[in-house]
Design goal:
This protein is of the alpha+beta class and about 300 residues long. The chain is built from 3 helices and 15 strands. The strands form 4 sheets. Strands 7, 8, 10, 11 and 12 form a 5-stranded antiparallel beta sheet that branches. A 4-stranded mixed beta sheet has the order 1-2-3-4, covered by helices on one side. It starts with 13 loop residues before the first helix and ends in a 5-residue tail after the last strand. The relative contact order is 0.08.
């Protein structure tokens, strides 16, 4: 009797099958989460890109209008915003990646935690703004601030008041400029501000300049400053006073046809020079104006008289 050899094939046990299924499930889950993370990162990139485009349109609006649009203007229908507010902007960038094209995803709720919204905030005067989005991947709020604050109005000479208080002091004052956080005061002895330039910053609206030279003209700029730059100012000038000179003593000497008046040299402040004028009359009251002689620093003058006495 011939022997018959039989072959047996081994099969997976139930435990082995379960283990395989679990491993496949884990791998699938990892793949799903990985793919989901890639998708959310991609949407976050789109959010960042679209916020940047909106921001540039807001800056263009600012330079055309002098302020940023209100929340009410910016939350209208996407077609209205693109045609009447942020003119020329592609309306599709107003929608977050999770919202359909044609949607305006801009909201004015500062407390919003909605990843499907662009959060816009501006004061009532439209002087600045903040535009934010929320990262889908990390829930982090990413703000983008306005590039400019309210334009500083140029400071003209009409708003600068100058008073020469004494021979060593000049006081200046000026009107407040909207948007200015402080003022830079420039003082110089030359109109081009290249000589003896002194610069001082202050948040006040006035300044006393002391220790100045007698009888000297000074030029002033008052320049408004903000965190975004400086305004400008037209120069205005003032001259320190000169103290009254000492009294002089006058003597006369006469001949039949000439009379000479002589006087003592007066004392003046350092750096100044005395000059003299005269006037005369033949009646009880002066009826002539002051006259500067040919040599204004001379200490005598002679007149020819036509009649004795």
């Amino acid at each position: 009797m011939a022997s018959r050899i039989m072959k047996q094939t081994s099969a997976f046990t139930l435990v082995e099958v379960v283990i395989v299924i679990v491993i496949i499930g884990i791998i699938s889950t990892i793949g799903v989460f990985s793919y989901s993370g890639v998708q959310s990162d991609s949407r976050d990139t789109q959010r960042s890109s679209r916020v940047s485009v909106i921001s540039e349109a807001l800056e263009k609006y600012y330079w055309q209008n002098g302020n940023y649009p209100s929340c009410e203007e910016l939350t209208q229908d996407a077609s209205v915003v693109s045609s009447d507010v942020l003119k020329g902007i592609d309306a599709t960038v107003l929608a977050t990646p999770s919202n359909p094209n044609g949607t305006n995803s801009i909201v004015c709720d500062n407390n919003s935690n909605n990843v499907d919204a662009f959060i816009y905030s501006t004061p009532t005067d439209g002087s600045e703004y903040t535009l934010s989005y929320i990262k889908e991947s990390t829930k982090e709020v990413v703000p983008l601030a306005s590039r400019y604050s309210k334009l500083i109005v140029n400071l003209g000479v009409s708003v600068i008041s100058i008073d020469s208080v004494s021979d060593t002091q000049i006081n200046i004052s000026w009107s407040a400029v909207e948007g200015a956080t402080e003022y830079k005061v420039e003082r110089s002895t030359s109109s081009d501000f290249n000589s003896n330039l002194v610069e001082t910053s202050t948040s006040d609206l006035s300044m006393s300049n002391t220790g100045l030279s007698v009888g000297t003209m000074y030029y002033f700029h008052v320049i408004p400053k903000s965190t975004n730059g400086m305004g400008s100012s037209v120069a205005k000038e003032a001259t320190t006073t000169i103290p009254a000179p000492s009294s002089l003593a006058v003597t006369t000497s006469s001949s039949t046809s000439t009379t000479t008046w002589s006087w003592t040299t007066v004392t003046c402040s350092a750096g100044t020079t005395a000059s003299y004028q005269y006037r005369y009359t033949t009646s009880s009251g002066y009826d002539s104006t002051w006259v500067t002689p040919t040599s204004p620093t001379a200490t005598s003058i002679s007149f020819t008289t036509s009649t004795e006495g």
